[in-house]
Design a protein that fits this description.
Blueprint: H1 2-16, H2 20-27, H3 44-81, H4 86-89, H5 93-96, H6 114-152, H7 159-172, H8 177-223, H9 234-248, H10 251-269, E1 274-275, E2 278-279, H11 280-319, H12 331-336
Antiparallel strand pairs: 1-2
Helix pairs in contact: 1-3, 3-6, 6-7, 6-8, 8-9, 8-10, 10-11
Length: 337
C-alpha cells in the first residue's frame, strides 16, 4: 500500500512538476533513502500521512486543471475579441487540449506545472491590458462595418449620431465594452439579413434607373436635327438608339414588377422601403403618374398633328393646292395664233 501511494505521488509530481523526493521526505525520510541500510517506514502514521499527501496532491491537480481551463477559455475569448493572429496564439496551443479534460484523466508530463499556470496568468493579464486600449478601436471598427453594410443596400443610417452615441456610452462607463461589441455584432447580423432581403429589389431599381437614363439620352438624341448626318460615330448612336427604344418599351413592366415587390416587402415588415432616404413606393408611383401624363401629352400632340393634316387636306380639296401653277398671261391668245 505504501508503494501504491509512493507511485501515485510520483505520477502527480510528473504532471505538476514538483520535487518528488522532497514531498516524500516530508512524510518520512526513509521513503527517499535509496540505500538498503534502512527499510521504508510502513507504520500507520506513515500510511496516514501518505494518504493525506496523495489526497492533497489530487486536490491541487484538480484546482490547477480548473484554473488553466478557465484561463484558456478567457484567452480564447480575448484572442477572438481582438482578432489576435494565429502565430501569436501558437505557443499556447497545448492549453486547448486541457479545456475539456476531466480531472481524473491521465495528463501529459508537466502540463500542470506552476510555470505553465503563471505563463497562462501572464498572458491573460497582457491581453486584458491590451483589451482596454484596443476595445474602443474595435467598437468603432465594428460600427464602420455596420455602416458599410447599410450603405451598400441604401439602408438609412445616421453615422455621426451613432458614433457620438457610442462615444458618450463608452465615456460614461455605464456599459461594459464587451456588451457594446456584442450589441453591434447583433446589429451587423440583422443588417446582413436585411441587406439580403433588399438586394433583389435594389438590383431591379438599378435596371429601371439605367432604362430611364437611356430614355433621357434618346429624348436628347431625337431632338438633334443633325443625328442622321454623316458625322463620326453616327452609326454607333443609331445602334444605341435602337437598343434604347427596346429597353424603354420594358419600363412599364419594370415599374409594375417593382411596385409589386416593394408592396410585398413592406407588408411583410410593416415599414416603408427606403431608397436614397425616400420611400421607394412613392417614387415608383410618382414615376408611373408622370409617365402616364407624358404619354397623354404625346397622344394629344399626335392627335393635334393629325387634325391639322386633315384640315389641310380638306382645304386643299376644296380650294385647290396653293402650289398649283397659274396659267401665264396671254396664254389663250398664243393658242389662237
Amino acid at each position: 500500500k505504501v508503494n501504491s501511494y509512493v507511485n501515485a505521488v510520483h505520477e502527480l509530481s510528473e504532471i505538476m512538476s514538483f520535487d518528488f523526493s522532497k514531498a516524500l521526505s516530508n512524510v518520512h525520510k526513509s521513503l527517499t533513502d535509496s540505500s538498503k541500510a534502512h527499510s521504508k517506514s510502513i507504520s500507520t502514521d506513515t500510511l496516514a500521512r501518505l494518504t493525506e499527501l496523495v489526497e492533497s496532491l489530487k486536490k491541487e491537480k484538480h484546482q490547477r486543471l480548473l484554473k488553466l481551463q478557465g484561463l484558456g477559455r478567457t484567452m480564447q475569448e480575448l484572442w477572438n475579441l481582438m482578432e489576435t493572429p494565429m502565430d501569436k496564439r501558437r505557443r499556447f496551443y497545448d492549453f486547448s487540449s486541457l479545456l475539456s479534460v476531466p480531472a481524473d484523466d491521465a495528463l501529459e508530463k508537466g502540463c500542470l506545472s506552476l510555470d505553465i499556470v503563471r505563463e497562462a496568468e501572464d498572458e491573460v493579464k497582457r491581453l486584458n491590458a491590451l483589451k482596454s486600449s484596443k476595445m474602443k478601436e474595435l467598437v468603432f471598427k465594428k460600427q464602420r462595418e455596420l455602416e458599410e453594410i447599410c450603405r451598400g443596400v441604401q439602408m438609412d443610417v445616421n453615422s455621426d449620431a451613432a458614433r457620438q452615441s457610442l462615444v458618450d456610452l463608452i465615456d460614461s462607463g455605464d456599459c461594459d465594452l464587451s456588451d457594446i461589441l456584442a450589441s453591434i455584432d447583433d446589429q451587423i447580423e440583422k443588417a446582413k439579413e436585411e441587406a439580403l432581403s433588399r438586394k433583389e429589389i435594389l438590383d431591379k431599381v438599378d435596371k429601371w434607373r439605367q432604362a430611364k437614363d437611356e430614355e433621357k439620352w434618346l429624348d436628347d438624341y431625337e431632338k438633334d436635327e443633325n443625328r442622321f448626318s454623316a458625322v463620326r460615330g453616327a452609326h454607333k448612336n443609331l445602334k444605341r438608339a435602337e437598343k434604347a427604344r427596346s429597353l424603354i418599351s420594358k419600363i412599364p413592366a419594370m415599374l409594375d414588377g417593382l411596385t409589386t415587390k416593394v408592396k410585398a416587402w413592406e407588408k411583410e415588415r410593416g415599414v416603408p422601403f427606403l431608397c436614397d432616404k425616400q420611400p421607394l413606393l412613392q417614387t415608383l408611383e410618382d414615376d408611373i403618374v408622370m409617365r402616364a401624363q407624358r404619354e397623354e401629352e404625346k397622344r394629344q400632340f399626335r392627335e393635334q398633328k393629325r387634325l391639322q393634316g386633315q384640315l389641310a387636306t380638306e382645304k386643299e380639296a376644296k380650294y385647290g393646292s396653293k402650289s398649283a401653277k397659274k396659267k401665264p398671261l396671254g396664254q389663250s391668245l398664243n393658242t389662237d395664233n
